[in-house]
Amino acid sequence: MEKTFANILALIDLPEDPDLFFMAAIETANQFQANIHVIYRTSGLDDNSQNDYVPSKIWILQNTYRPFLGSKSFLHIHITKNQPGKEALLYAQTNQIDLVLTWKREGSFLSAPITMIRSNMLSRRLACPVLSLPGHADIRVLKDIILPVQQFLPAGKLVLAVRLARLFRAKIHLVGVVNDSKNESGDEFFLKACQLLQNNTNLEVKCKLVKGGNLARATMQYGIMINSGLILVCNARKPMALAIACLLLTRPVSAVGRIPVMTVPVEQLNIE
């Protein structure tokens, strides 16, 4: 069976607890039976120490974490003094990366919009999904997947959701919003998406259509209610505007408690 993701790139940037992030990256790779690549930014690295420090540090990291990775997968570690995101584009193109793994920085008022902008930029530049995890999220217990449905039929997002749901034996939840009470055609794509999933898969599918309101807020509230394991969204064409809207929400979608968010490039959703 074709793998959902074959090469995962984890961006680990000056972590207080490197073990937490390395193990999360390894666990994610094991779930997808994928290879794991790590761009690791560490402190105390300069041009004078790089030649001696880097090879020995990589050797230590390989010996520490490789035993936890599946036998058919490999671990590749790149240590840098630069921000991992700056080196991700060239690395992803060279190594056929099809999923990028990042972590949310919690506690700051600006952390939510920064995370949203970062995920949008990465998914657009690298042309692959970006999975943003809270610090202590465990991908192994993913049991629910939420898909916000906008005014188009997200065929590619549906395909990815089905593959993820089958892999994790999870439920799929579709969330839509109808704002115009006089014109119910706004729910056409939502209802079609529900019908496609229910008629063509044996997965458990829940459909939640909200009358009025904001789709981001509706998704957030529903995710909190069911304690969702993953919210699957397409990247925004105007990430700055989305980030400003994010600030106006009490608890924006990209930072809902401990819920991971996967941002998928719009280009990957246009499946005929």
Topology:
Layout: E1 7-13, H1 18-32, E2 35-41, H2 47-65, E3 75-80, H3 84-95, E4 99-103, H4 111-126, E5 130-133, E6 144-148, H5 155-168, E7 171-178, H6 188-200, E8 205-211, H7 215-226, E9 230-234, H8 239-248, E10 261-264
Parallel strand pairs: 1-2, 1-4, 2-3, 4-5, 6-7, 6-9, 7-8, 9-10
Antiparallel strand pairs: 5-10
Question: What do you see in this structure?
Answer:
This protein is of the alpha/beta class. It folds into two domains: 7-103, HUPs (Rossmann fold); 139-269, HUPs (Rossmann fold), CATH 3.40.50.620. The protein has eight helices and ten strands. The chain has helices at 18-32, 47-65, 84-95, 111-126, 155-168, 188-200, 215-226, 239-248; strands at residues 7-13, 35-41, 75-80, 99-103, 130-133, 144-148, 171-178, 205-211, 230-234, 261-264. The longest helix is centred in the first third of the chain and has 19 residues, at 47-65. The radius of gyration is 19 Å and the shape is elongated. Mean pLDDT is 81; it is low at 243-256.
